[in-house]
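cron nightly-structures :: item 1 of 1
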Amino acid sequence: MSLFCKIEAETEVLQAPSEKVYEFFKLRPYDLTKFPSTNIQSANLLEGDWGTKGCLVRWNYSYEGKAISDKEMVEAIDDKNRSITWKMVEGHLITKIYKSFKAVIQVTPKGDDGCVVRFIMEYEKPNEETMDPHGKLQFSLNLCKEIAGYLMEEQSQVAP
């Protein structure tokens, strides 16, 4: 018996405008390889163009001490609501743990220079004993603070 599940959480990102954070997730996810704490070795575009529906990306990273290679496709992009849906099509999460896995990222403006980033993970567990991906969700939330710092540093290098 399969179990369809969903977990979600959000984090406030201060000093990073929503359009910049959304643009990062949409057009520059490969820059995640620049963050040592992510353990992402590479993000290779296999099909399509960055920031377009249907683009296919191979991620190579370390998680819990294991080398992992996943392939994800951008299933949906909603620029009006600043939302991106990634669907796992091959790799560790769907061959070893879940029957299906999607991650939705939504960025909402907050104040003049901040935003709220919501992560929604939808997945199908093969049985009740399969753990929920709380670690992956927490990793995603923590990543937002690094993205904010990266964008601030990038902006300070451009400013006169």
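cron nightly-structures :: done
The mean pLDDT is 91.
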